[in-house]
Each structure stands twice: as structure tokens, then as C-alpha cells.
Amino acid sequence: MGAVAPSSPMLASLIADSADISAAKHVLELGPGTGPITAAISKSLSSHAHYLGLEMNESFVKQLRERFPAMQFEAVAAQLYDFDAFLGRDGSFDAIVSGLPWSAFPESLQITILDHVMPRLKPGGLFVTFAYSGFHLLPSGRHFRKLLSSRVAEIKMTPTVWGNFPPAFVYMAKMSDKNFAAHQTEPAA
Ligand SMILES: C[S@@+](CC[C@H](N)C(=O)[O-])C[C@H]1O[C@@H](n2cnc3c(N)ncnc32)[C@H](O)[C@@H]1O
Known about the structure:
The chain has 189 residues and is α/β, with parallel strands linked by helices. The protein has helices spanning 9-18, 36-44, 58-67, 83-87, 107-117, 139-149, 177-183, and strands at 26-30, 50-55, 72-75, 93-98, 121-132, 154-157, 168-174. β4 (93-98), α5 (107-117) and β5 form a beta-alpha-beta unit. The radius of gyration is 15 Å and the shape is globular.
């Protein structure tokens, strides 16, 4: 899974707060796993909002559907998620929350996933993810941050959550109108 342990409630709450979930109408979570961040999201999610969780592990998807019946979970086989099928061609998100182990991914996979997902983030939308302190200094961790920075208007880091195992911090990346336009896919002919 790329994780030493599921995210702690403290880290999960920080992620949900950083993504401004209570104000979001459309939320995407990548790699919800056993659902620690999903639980924090569900506490803040408005009853009118739509949530989509994309997870590669089918048994996690089954458990998540049972635990959070009002939220949508889909099993995905690869990094090229079929957003058109899940949401319609114009579906986009106010907040994208990722629990993917970016620093464990090869750089080519980091690029493929970000190129696929970021065009679905609305202008001014937030992309929020976490990194284990220290791992972000590995070449793959630095590469991920550089890739993310190149796709958004600004990127901030929270202080480290020392109560998480391992200690971790949160990246908050905000999409600008300009970057959003640059990443829009061409409408199908
Ligand atoms: C590091 S775990 C994090 C789980 C949970 N979000 C947490 O914070 O404890 C990563 C999860 O992402 C899933 N995953 C890995 N690659 C994925 C991909 N390309 N798309 C969707 N899910 C993926 C794994 O199956 C795993 O459940």
C-alpha cells in the first residue's frame, strides 16, 4: 500500500480541514484505503455535496461502500480513471484529496496520475495530500513536489503532525484560473 500505518485521526482531520471540505460541492479522494481520511471527510461533507472515492483494492471498496453508504466508491484498475463514466464529461471537483503514496511511485506514474486528475480540479480548487517527513526529501518526493508546484498557483505545507506514525505533513495546492485553463482537455469533436 505504500503506507506504514493508516493515517491517524489527527492527520486525517488536518487533511479534511486543509481541503475546505465543508465548503466543497464535489470532492474526489484518491486511494481511500481503509477509510481514515474518508471518515474525516464524511464529518465535514455537506449533505448536498457529492463524494467520489477511487481505490485500487476491491476489498477496500466493498468495505468502504458498507461503512459510508451515502458516498460513491469505485474500484479502479489503473491510474487512468474513467471520470467520464463516473461523473459525465464535464464533471470536476472543488477539492481533490489524495492518500496515494506519491514518494513510493516512479516519476512516470506521478506524472500520469497528476496529468489525468488535475484538469478535473475547478478554478480556485484545492488539491491536498500528505507526505511522511523525511520521505519528501527523497528524489521521488522532491520530484512529486516539483510536479505539483508546476500545475498550481500556490503550494503550502502544514507543520508536521508528530502524533502520526510516521510523522507527516500536508501539502495544500491551490489551482488558479490560468492553470486550470492550461490543463483543460479539448472537448471531444
Ligand atoms: C498509502 S495507502 C493510504 C490509505 C489511506 N488513505 C490512509 O491515509 O491511511 C494508499 C492507498 O491507495 C491505493 N492506491 C494505490 N495506487 C492507487 C491508484 N493509482 N489509484 C487509486 N488507489 C490507489 C492503495 O490500494 C491504498 O489503499
